[in-house]
Automatic annotation (TrEMBL):
One of its GO terms (cellular component) is plasma membrane. Transmembrane segments: none annotated. Belongs to the ABC transporter superfamily. Keywords: ATP-binding, Nucleotide-binding, Transport. GO terms for molecular function: ATP binding; ATP hydrolysis activity; transmembrane transporter activity. It comes from the Bacteria. CDD domains: ABC_MJ0796_LolCDE_FtsE. It comes from Halobacillus litoralis. It holds the Pfam family ABC_tran. Gene3D superfamilies: P-loop containing nucleotide triphosphate hydrolases. This is ATP-binding cassette domain-containing protein. Residues 2-232 form the ABC transporter domain.
Length: 232
């Protein structure tokens, strides 16, 4: 589903006449198979977010190749990435990234508006989705009128509304209490089992790593371990 080959990435920092290359990812090779839940772990600064940003096309690799759903996306221009993301990828973030001036309904609807889906179809799909994530009664609430767990459910619903085969998540449970975290993890497992959605999840959290079939560990920009978790 996702294949990363000999991927390296450097950032250039400092002023023009004193530019320094900071090598952040070094020769990463990995594969995420369809229907897997893979967690990416590693210390702060080990390159986890950079890897996810490369897989999402927000930054371009210095070296190496990325294939997603059998497409070589490495050299995609921004417009091609935008279309590719809209069709293949859903995103969940620690900070939810909801639009504060939009209701739960409108936040979930937004990706469909961007895809040009008709209003009638949007209404049907958003209402089904609100039901699925248990937020029917909160459809007209603004993010500030929702709890952290409810906001994260809106963000999950927004990620799912375009039915992406892959969801990329950056510390999705980072802002949640234990109980809400468990709810989200159960939901992720349900989506994975019932809808075969592939998940790549950056986490510091042992509980998240526990639901993953595989854990990829980065150390100082290198792949330090890629192991299957026997229990699940
Ligand atoms: N835009 C950038 N310009 C320069 N350096 C960057 C940039 N983005 C990230 N870095 C550096 O790359 C390294 C890896 O950062 P990254 O955010 O990928 O780590 P991380 O493992 O996700 O960390 P955390 O767990 O703290 O989020 C860090 O040393 C960081 O300072």
């Amino acid at each position: 589903m996702i294949k990363v080959e000999k991927l390296s990435h450097s950032f250039f920092v400092g002023k023009k006449n004193n530019r320094q290359e900071v090598s952040v990812l070094k020769d990463i090779n990995l594969e995420v198979k369809e229907g897997e839940i893979v967690s990416i772990v590693g210390r702060s600064g080990s390159g986890k977010s950079t890897l996810l940003n490369l897989m999402s096309g927000y930054i371009k690799p210095t070296e190496g190749d990325i294939f997603i759903a059998d497409e070589r996306v490495t050299d995609y221009k921004e417009s091609a990435w935008a279309e590719f993301r809209a069709n293949h990828l859903g995103f969940i973030f620690q900070s939810f990234q909801l639009i504060p001036s939009m209701t739960a309904y409108q936040n979930i609807e937004l990706p469909l508006v961007m895809k040009g889906v008709s209003e009638k179809e949007r209404e049907k799909r958003v209402n089904e989705m609100l039901d699925k994530v248990g937020l029917k009664a909160f459809r007209d609430h603004y993010p500030s009128e929702l709890s952290g767990g409810q906001q994260q459910r809106v963000s999950v619903a927004r990620a799912l509304i375009v039915q992406p085969p892959i969801i990329l998540a950056d510390e999705p449970t980072g802002s949640l209490d234990q109980e809400t975290e468990k709810e989200l993890l159960d939901f992720i497992q349900k989506l994975n089992k019932e809808e075969n959605i592939t998940f790549v999840i950056i986490t510091h959290d042992e509980e998240v790593a526990r639901i993953a079939e595989r854990t990829i560990r980065l150390e100082d920009g290198r792949l330090a371990a890629d192991r299957e978790v026997a229990f699940r």
